UniProtKB/TrEMBL annotation:
Organismal lineage: Eukaryota, Fungi, Dikarya, Ascomycota, Saccharomycotina
Family statement: Belongs to the eukaryotic ATPase epsilon family. Belongs to the MYBBP1A family.
One Gene Ontology cellular component annotation held by this UniProt entry: proton-transporting ATP synthase complex
Name of the protein: DNA polymerase V
An individual GO BP term: regulation of DNA-templated transcription
Organism: Candidozyma pseudohaemuli
Region (Disordered): 277-306, 724-759
InterPro entries (alphabetical): ARM-type_fold, ATP_synth_F1_esu_mt, ATP_synth_F1_esu_sf_mt, DNA_pol_V/MYBBP1A
Domain of life: Eukaryota
Family annotation (Pfam families): ATP-synt_Eps, DNA_pol_phi
Skewed-composition ranges (Basic residues): 288-303
Length: 1064
């Protein structure tokens, strides 16, 4: 027996329940195999298609698909395809009294029945179907399409599915296609989007051959033939019939309402254009240079057909750009246009992407994405996000898309991201940084892509430079289009940074970037007509520095990239079309020439393996400072001279005289003072590779004096006074008479500040005088000066006027004068206060930056030399900095370095003997250091990490001393005992008890190396568990038990697992 409840569950809102009901229904029908049940099921399901419930229609049509196939193929049941169609039409007859909703449900029920028959695949079964049956089905389907305009698209979609399946079936016949197209033509559907879809479903050349027998409205029987482009554009608008004759009573009616979903014919069109381009590429690849001189007739016919077909560029211009994106197009048309753009951009190959970007599209896209209140803002944003997502997955589309977005030829703009409030150009330029799996794209492909993106940007730069207009003001540093040129330089830097993860096969990409930047940073054309402005030139220098900072540790043919830049500058100086922007004096030219000669010497020494790292560092320093000299840096001359002395002493290895490590440290600190990432990275690289690296004797170049220079910076006050101390110390190094230079600099600063105050006061006084004169009616000149020669006549008039003023006017005058004097007082006081605050804030920020970079050097030293005896010298400055700094972030950074780096270091005996002759003095010094640290821990500190740091540093020194000499354990215990006594007797002592706890834990490991802190804690936990009550002890013991079993492998075979304590 078949349960009737299954029919009820077929109308469920849950898809899973509908599937279960259909499966159960068909299973029970097959089990019962009764004609009455089959008849009831067929009638019930067919009638159920006309229900008003949409979900019920889904369930009934799904079950009907399987039922129809079962009954038509069933030998003992009389049901044919034609019989089913007639039954379906009779059940879904349109009656006169039907209203809108009822009519809609009846017509859609019939459509679902036709779809169920198509899905059952019995239409193309030669046993039960024939061409006459298919013709009957097609005729009924097309008649249904002509019933109502709102039903047409859905019905014709089913017809397109039928045609696609018919082309692959055993019943396929060209006459059958002719009948299909003739039915479409008879119902005036040929020149509609639905009729176009039917034509597009038939492939060429079968489409033209079939349409020629019908005599359709398309020229050459192909809608995509060039002569059909105007009609094709009108048809795709889906607004009204194309021919005027079709507007009569026999023609199809216009659709009543606009549908935001684009017609399905666009899917067929994009598929056609994508396949057409792929076929062209395959033909070019197969023929290549071996193409025959005389093509065969078949090839000629194919080439002629391709020439007569509409290409995407012209199709897009007429059917999309001039129709949907026209200036006067409605919002609904533009909506369709943006949706169609998304569809095409996802599917067309990269070679056709440029055809999609047109001026009208770009104008619409930028207008609607610029403001949130625009009607199509969300859809425009969706388009932008689609561009980003598609280009990330298909990098071949990056270059044409970027070219169209920033080019005015395609309606783009260099400021596209600013206008649209998006990150489209940034994502396109930096697309290599968004690739999650770098193995998915070969290194050569990534390099080729980077080069192509660079060429697009530089092409925009050169075109903009050609259009540049010289400023009318000769002293102006800015020219027209400077913003575009700066934007290109910024994007080149973004492109460079996106390539960090890839290892390019050659240096072509980086070389071209450096050559481009060097040309515009240091040179200009001799006619100066096609040269960038000074502002752009300075930015090019900054970008060059940024490029160098990214490749500072990379080598080009064994040498630095900065050396390549210096050599290329020398090459451009010989050019007849360029001249340097900065003309060097004879003295500077001589310094540069000497530095270049020395640089050539260093270059030859880099090949020596014994000192290659040191020579490379000197090569890096010399080349970088030469670039600074050419940029106009005043300090570069002194630095070059100091470097020259250092390198000469380094080659001769003189132990007396100039200490090159001290001079190099001072140079590094001078680099850190500059707000430059390049100088920071250069300093760190030279510090790690030269000063912190060991030589063949096992020694490092940096010594206690070098570290003291770093410590002096950390001790500097974090205010203007501290900043002055830093620069005054620098002046003392440069001047012979330090005191005189200091006094002169102070006098100059005071005079400058006094002159600024006087200028400000004079300006405020002048403005106040003008306001008072206007308020009192005193005559003034245009410059604001009072006309004293007219005072006499004014006084005579004012006496009369003052007699006429009443009390209210006099009060108003007093208020006005009071307001003027108040504004004067506020301006004078506010400007002075603001200047002082700004100077103080700037000084503090510079000191904080300087100290932070010095901390980076300290961390690098401890990282490179973890066993150096100088690590213990780092403890006191870091503890003092944690206690004295007013900047929270700086204190946290110092404590982190101390905790993770310095306190992890352990002095090695070999390193100690290599650097210090008196080892005993070293040990005694740091034994006293433990006492000093514990005294610091007992003092008040606003930073909670201060006391903890003192305890950690004490343990670090103790570990190193005991590791060097075990007899020092007793001395260390005595120091801690004395500290413990002071802490016990002095209530003001602020030492944290954890300091002694950490020491006892460490001592326990020294006494019994086999028992660690974790083991001691485990023993203590076990003791506590044993002291608990019985019920609590059982639960605790369960948590404390941990069983480990081990299996031994012998000859590849595992033995039986045994407890860990059983294995010996």
């Amino acid at each position: 027996m078949v349960l009737k409840d299954h029919y009820y569950r077929l109308s469920s809102d849950l898809p899973e329940e509908r599937i279960q009901a259909a499966t159960a229904l068909l299973g029970e029908l097959q089990a019962a195999n009764a004609t009455a049940e089959w008849d009831y099921a067929l009638n019930r399901l067919v009638k159920g298609l006309t229900t008003l419930r949409q979900t019920a229609r889904f369930g009934f049509s799904m079950a009907l698909t399987e039922l129809v196939r079962e009954l038509i193929l069933k030998e003992d049941y009389e049901l044919s395809i034609v019989g089913f169609v007639e039954k379906l039409v009779s059940v879904s007859q349109i009656l006169g009294g039907m209203k809108g909703a009822e009519l809609r449900s009846v017509l859609f029920g019939r459509l679902f029945g036709f779809q169920a028959l198509l899905n059952s695949r019995v239409l193309f079964d030669t046993k039960v179907s024939s061409q006459e049956v298919l013709d009957k089905y097609v005729k009924s389907l097309v008649e249904l399409a002509g019933t109502k305009p709102w039903l047409r698209e859905t019905v014709m979609f089913t017809l397109c599915q039928f045609v696609a399946a018919y082309l692959l079936s055993d019943l396929f016949d060209k006459n059958g296609l002719v009948h299909i197209l003739q039915c479409v033509e008879d119902h005036h559907l040929t020149l509609t989007v639905e009729g176009l879809a039917v034509y597009m479903t038939i492939p060429q050349p079968l489409r033209s051959q079939t349409a020629a027998k019908v005599g359709s409205g398309w020229k050459n029987g192909d809608p995509l033939s060039k002569g059909n482009l105007p009609n094709l554009a009108v048809v795709l608008k889906d607004a009204e019939p194309v021919d005027a004759e079709e507007k009569g009573k026999n023609g199809q009616k216009q659709k009543g309402s606009w549908n935001p979903q684009i017609p399905f014919v666009w899917d067929l069109l994009v598929k056609h254009f994508a396949q057409a381009d792929d076929e062209e590429e395959e033909d070019e690849a197969s023929n290549g240079k071996k193409r025959k001189k005389h093509a065969s007739p078949k090839q000629k016919k194919k080439a002629k057909t391709e020439d007569e077909s509409i290409h995407l560029k012209e199709f897009w211009r007429v059917a999309i750009d001039e129709t949907l994106f026209a200036e006067k197009a409605s919002t609904e048309r533009k909506y369709w246009g943006l949706e169609i753009f998304i569809l095409f951009f996802k599917q067309v190959p990269a070679s056709l992407v440029e055809a999609l970007f047109t001026p009208n599209l770009m104008r619409c896209l930028m207008n609607h994405s610029s403001q949130n209140n625009r009607v199509l803002n969300k859809l425009a944003t969706k388009v932008l996000n689609t561009i980003i997502e598609v280009t990330k997955s298909d990098v071949a589309k990056v270059v044409p898309t970027l070219k169209c977005i920033i080019s005015e030829e395609y309606g783009g703009n260099w400021a596209f991201d600013n206008v649209t409030k998006s990150k489209v150009t940034d994502s396109l330029v930096g697309v290599l940084s968004y690739i999650e799996n770098i193995d998915s794209i070969p290194s050569s492909r990534a390099e080729s892509l980077a080069v192509d993106i660079k060429n697009v940007l530089i092409d925009l730069f050169n075109k903009t430079l050609d259009k540049q207009v010289e400023p009318k003001d000769e002293e102006s540093k800015k020219k027209s289009h400077d913003n575009v040129l700066k934007w290109v330089l910024d994007k080149l830097l973004l492109l460079q940074r996106s390539t960090k993860r890839f290892q390019f096969t050659d240096n072509r990409f980086i070389e071209r970037n450096f050559e481009f930047l060097i040309q515009h940073a240091f040179f200009q054309g001799k006619d100066k007509t096609k040269s960038v402005s000074d502002n752009v030139s300075h930015l090019a220098q900054d970008r060059l520095n940024s490029f160098l900072s990214g490749v500072i540790s990379q080598k080009r043919k064994g040498h630095s990239w900065s050396l390549y830049c210096v050599k290329y500058i020398g090459k451009l100086e010989k050019s007849s079309n360029l001249e340097p922007r900065l003309e060097l004096t004879e003295e500077l030219s001589l310094v540069r020439s000497q530095a270049l000669d020395l640089l050539d010497t260093i270059k030859s020494h880099v090949k020596d393996d014994s000192a290659s790292d040191a020579n490379y560092c000197f090569e890096l320093l010399f080349s970088m400072v030469i670039l600074q000299l050419l940029s106009g840096e005043a300090e570069a001359v002194n630095v070059l001279q100091e470097l020259q002395m250092c390198y000469e002493d380094f080659l001769t290895k003189q132990e007396e005289g100039l200490k090159i490590q001290v001079v190099l440290t001072e140079i590094i600190l001078s680099f850190l003072l500059k707000n430059s990432l390049l100088m920071k990275k250069l300093s760190q690289f030279v510090w790690e590779s030269l000063l912190c690296a060991k030589n063949h004797e096992g020694k490092i170049l940096a010594d206690e004096e070098c570290l003291e220079l770093l410590f002096d910076v950390l001790k500097t006050k974090e205010n203007e006074e501290g900043l002055r101390d830093l620069f005054e110390g620098e002046d003392e190094f440069e001047e012979e008479d330090g005191e005189e230079s200091e006094e002169e600099s102070e006098e100059e600063e005071e005079s400058d500040s006094e002159s600024d105050v006087l200028d400000l006061t004079a300006k405020v006084e002048k403005e106040t005088t003008i306001k008072l004169a206007k308020a009192l009616g005193v005559p003034t000149a245009e410059s604001g000066e009072v006309k004293f020669d007219e005072i006499d006549s004014f006084e005579a008039d004012s006496d009369v006027a003052s007699d006429l003023m009443d009390d209210e006017e006099m009060m108003a005058m007093d208020d006005q004068l009071a307001r003027i004097f108040k504004e004067r007082r506020d301006l004078l006081s506010a400007n002075t206060t603001n200047n002082k605050k700004a100077q103080a804030a700037q000084a503090k920020q510079l000191i904080m930056l300087f100290k932070s970079r010095v901390l980076d050097l300290i961390e690098a030293f401890s990282k490179v030399q973890p066993h150096s005896p100088y690590n213990l010298y780092l403890l006191r400055p870091l503890v003092l900095l944690i206690n004295t700094t007013k900047d929270k972030e700086l204190g946290v950074k110092a404590h982190k370095i101390l905790k993770t780096r310095v306190t992890k270091a352990k002095v090695g005996k070999e390193d100690l003997e290599a650097h210090f002759d008196d080892v005993e003095a070293y040990k005694k010094r740091f034994l006293k250091e433990i006492g000093w640290l514990q005294q610091q821990a007992g003092k008040y500190s606003s930073n909670q990490a201060h006391g903890q740091s003192c305890g950690q540093c004490s343990i670090t020194i103790a570990k190193s001393l005991v590791g060097l000499d075990e007899s020092y354990l007793k001395k260390i215990v005595e120091v801690y005992s004395q500290t413990l006594l002071e802490w016990s007797t002095d209530p003001k002592n602020r030492i944290q008890p954890a300091l002694f706890t950490f020491f006892l834990n460490w001592v326990s490991t020294v006494r019994e190396p086999g028992i660690s802190l974790n083991r001691a804690m485990a023993i203590a936990a076990k003791t506590v568990r044993n002291s608990l009550k019985s019920d609590l002890r059982v639960a605790a013991e369960r948590r404390g038990n941990s069983d480990v079993k081990v299996s031994k492998f012998e000859n590849g075979v595992a033995s039986e697992p045994k407890a860990l304590h059983e294995n010996k």
